Amino acid sequence: MGVDQSVKTVSADSINSFHLNEKKRIKVKPFNKASLIIQLTIISLVLVTIYTFISFDYSDINLFEGIISTFQNVKIMFLEPHFKHFSFVTALYQVMITLGLAFLTTLFGALIALFLGFFAARNLSSKPVSAAIKGFVAVIRSVPTVLWVLIFAVAAGLGSVAAVIGMTFHTVGYLIKAYSESFEELDEGVIEALKASGANWWQIIFQAVIPSSMTYIISWTFLRFEVNFAVAVAMGAAAGAGGIGFDMFMASGFYFDLREVGVITYFVLAFAIALELIATKVKTNLKTSA
Amino acid sequence: MQADVFVKKRWNSFIFLLILLVVTFVSIVITEFNMAKGLASLPKALQWGFTNFYPDEMALTKLPDILNKLRETVLISVAATTVGAIFAFLFALFGSRTTKVNGVLSKVSRGIATIFRNIDISAWSMILLFSFGQSALTGYFALFFGSFGFLTRAFIETIDEVSSSSVEALQATGAGYFSIIFQSVIPSGIPQMISWILFMIETNIRSATLVGILTGTGIGFAFDLYYKSLNYHTASLVVIVIVITILTIEYISNYVRRVIL
Amino acid sequence: MTTLLQLNHVSKHYGNDTKALSDVNFSVKEGEFVSIIGPSGAGKSTLLRCINRMVDANSGEIIFDNVDIAGLGKKDLKKARTKIGMIFQHYNLVNRLSVIENVLHGRLGFKSTLAGALGLYTEEEKRQALQILGVLGLQEQIYKRSDQLSGGQKQRVGIARALIQNPKMLLCDEPIASLDPNASKIIMDHLKNISASMGITVLVNLHQVEVALKYSDRIIGVNKGSLIFDGPPNEITAEIIEAIYGSEAGDLMFDLGGQYAG
């Protein structure tokens, strides 16, 4: 008692000892690698941005006019929305289709990712298997969803089948990363204790791993559902997946009807915000109950 | 007692599974998703991929053109993210519980960010098509709006999580608002914020592909062009180029994160 | 000794019915070492934060150095806060910055917006920072990042940040609640030393009765937002402890306290 342990363990390698009567300016910011990398990152981002603006091809467009007309367009969209090519009920039905696509994708993705996630987690699997899955998944993730959908559309034809399978690819890639990282945060002791009691691998998975990472699994899955809703809208527009995205694409690209785009945007916005609110609720509930 | 807990637990899981099944069924019906066709198309797609979806010599001659489009896409993604981050930081300062100036302003800036975040980038690009037409600026603004909305939320969470305690300490010393921002909020939150920015750049390059398809610019347009003209060999080269780019950027981001976090 | 701080009828409630403080009155003299004890949730932390208005009291006067803090505008409040140092349970340092930068943060209240934002400190201020760090035994840690320090060291940085303000008073909110006994003793010794040798008033929230008994000139007992006791440590009895902490707990804690204090 009463021994100053923190003083005892003073590091001897500190060369920055100071002298009070030294006349030299006293340095305040010591050098460290992290700060250097942060500064370099910021500088490169800024330089690339400036270069981008300089190298933009402004010849066909007037930036100023464009911005003004954007404001006007947004005003028309949101303040004077109307239905023309479809009704409120059809719009609602189309949103449901988009939600359905998002749901199926998330469900299939979660099931596959959960299974593969165990093998991708370093502490539950062997090193080479984990590295192989993670590497493979990184490649899958790096292909934009829209390309997955379009590639599958060649074999399956444009439509919900290609959309769901294509979107599932990216979802699997995303969720395997999220799940396996949650599993890796699991306390080694828990696994060790069950191993010591003679439990086999699957028993450990079901009795320890799943229950203790359940909150992470749910919150990541729901987050992905939220993302998939947006993706499903986009796939409707860009890859013929149907749903509200397709209507938006038609209103914008074929009928050039700003007001109808406005209506659709309201629909998408309402559902997206609702999903975000639910996701936040789920997250805080899980946090407090955990 | 003990048994009750287990029974209740089992019931809960049962009801959860039931709901899941019903929703799945409804979704399958409503989207006209065909399970059998889906499963059957997988091997078909695989077979098609191996026989058609690889770059041939002809495709390689298009590489300079593809790289040029890629350059455009990467530049736009980085610029949109950077400018978005600057705006997001300002809005996050106003929106965060820790650094808000007043309650009304906080609600307003959070609200604006929520709207921008929840209108998907694809929707933004279709809206912006009206003003900027098929130009790189359409894509730039679409990505900028999306990044701004997402990063504002991420930055607000970062400030509230990482900086709130040191902000409290500086407020107690009587420090002014700007001193607190520059001496506490920025130094403590910057690693996380950069991590979010890097994440956003990765996401934006992927989204830029989609935006490109919709607006006829960048690498997305290149893919769409070859895809629609059934030139799958060249289209596959575009995919490979995108994959390499994104993996490279992911590698750099991971390195930066490892050092700074 | 003159009175430095005087609280008159200070009340604070959150929402409509959660009362955090009800009609608190007490005064503190210059150079006094006063501990505030009470169970967790008693309002100790709120009480401390009302003094420098990190939390705004709903009613009452807080006279510090002959000025009513409760009535000050933004600018004057900042000026008043420079005279009051604060120390936190979780140290509240900017983890990524060096020790000396964290200490110099205590000077920000004296700076113009630009100098503060850019972190421009005079050589005199830096020398003072080094001197204070020397007194607190941190001369070897000056350029370390503060997240590389132990808890006890972090808290000493927190004390240094408060001292460089040249404060008249230190508010310490559970300064040792996250520390082991050895580090706690060092921190409490430093605080006692600051009060005794520099004449700085120290007001410290504690939940360890025995520590309060050992170090304080005076003890204030709080329960459910009300003052239960205000007097020197030798007037504390088992009954008073029981009144502050609730039944049964009194005997237990007092016995424990007796052991440690002896």
Structural account:
Chain B: Belongs to the binding-protein-dependent transport system permease family. Chain B: This is ABC transporter permease subunit. The complex is a heterotrimer of chains A (290), B (261) and C (262). In chain A, helix 4 (88-120) crosses helix 7, helix 6 crosses helix 7 (160-184) and helix 9 packs antiparallel against helix 11. Chain A is mainly α and 290 residues long. Chain A starts with a helix and ends with a helix. Chain A contains 11 helices and no strands. Chain A has one domain (86-289): MetI-like fold (Orthogonal Bundle). The radius of gyration of chain A is 27 Å and the shape is globular. Chain B has 261 residues and is mostly helical. Chain B folds into 2 domains: 2-40; 57-260, MetI-like (MetI-like fold, Orthogonal Bundle), CATH 1.10.3720. Chain B has 10 helices and no strands. The two termini of chain B are 47 Å apart. The relative contact order of chain B is 0.12. By secondary structure, chain C is α/β, with parallel strands linked by helices. Chain C folds into 2 domains: 3-83 and 168-261, Rossmann fold (3-Layer(aba) Sandwich), CATH 3.40.50; 94-166, no CATH class. Chain C has helices spanning 44-51, 74-82, 99-104, 113-118, 123-135, 151-163, 181-198, 209-215, 238-245, 249-261; strands spanning 3-14, 18-29, 33-37, 59-64, 67-68, 84-87, 169-172, 201-206, 218-223, 226-231. Chain C has a 6-stranded mixed β-sheet, with helices on both faces. In chain C, strands 2-1-4-5 form a 4-stranded antiparallel β-sheet, covered by helices on one side. In chain C, helix 6 packs parallel to helix 7, helix 8 (209-215) packs across helix 10 (249-261) and helix 9 packs across helix 10. The longest helix of chain C is centred in the last third of the chain and has 18 residues, at 181-198. Mean pLDDT of chain C is 89; it is low at 256-262.
